């Protein structure tokens, strides 16, 4: 059985919003992603090893926030996966037939579909950033960027138990 | 001069929301963070090397989304930095006197104050996850969790130019 949020009839009284979930903040679009991937089926399962390049266009209003970003070799990109399904709580993955909770997967379908990618910054041209390794679809709203630090953000020996038991070939 | 978003009088006509920014989505709170850090000044600059432990409490409604998360040794935590200032576009850091755009820093003050941390998952007890290495303040709304993959998320040789020119001691 695959659960989704709609099944839960009894909710806390302070749940708000049209879809009866607790809204704690709004996402402001800071720019837009120009990507070679027009549809979900074209996008790689993970951007990291894709050699394709994308462009992050930051809106004029946020230009001052880019000061010195060209000094970062790699950046963390947060973007809105605006074609994802926010109601899904459990899912299958391309790696096998088992069902997992979405928080144990990298599926875009999740309560807050915020995509996370570490990308290589190839070139800054004003408020346009050319990057490599992003799995976002064309037109995805850009939410945040942060400098990636090998010291702070890199973990060498992480294990995802359910994933290690499979070979790395996604099922067709 | 430190820019902030309020200075920009001319805006696109499609900017929406009370504060005149383009709202593209809502953040749904999926849980709450119980942390030893009650105030900003108690929190480490980066959680990674803090040995302190925190607890992620996931709301009951999202419990099914945790299936198999205990198999992940490290998880990516996204949370709302609800005490941050969303108007700040440029800032100083603890590492020196220069001004940087917020997208070139890890400051919590930024247009979408979504905190990002890679934490070690120590123990799952139902919908309570004991973790190490989180810099979030007590009571921060939990937004998302994803399994961390060394293969996909770890970069060894990332450079942050402005940071490398400093020693690693934050200024007092």
Main traits of this protein?
homodimer; 172 residues; mainly beta; two-stranded antiparallel ribbon; 5% helix; globular
Q: What structural class do helix, strand and pairing data of chain A support?
A: mainly beta
Largest interface: A-B, 80 and 79 residues
Q: Tell me about the biggest sheet of chain A?
A: 6 strands, antiparallel, barrel
Q: Ranges of chain A with pLDDT <50 over ≥5 residues?
A: 4-19
The share of residues in helices of chain A is under 10%
How are the strands ordered across the major sheet of chain A?
Answer: 2-3-8-7-4-9
**Mean pLDDT over all positions of chain A:** 84
Radius of gyration of chain A (CA) equals: 18 Å
What kind of oligomer do you see? homodimer
Strand content of chain A: 25-35%
The N- to C-terminal Cα distance of chain A equals 22 Å
SSE ordering of chain A: EEEEEEEEEHH
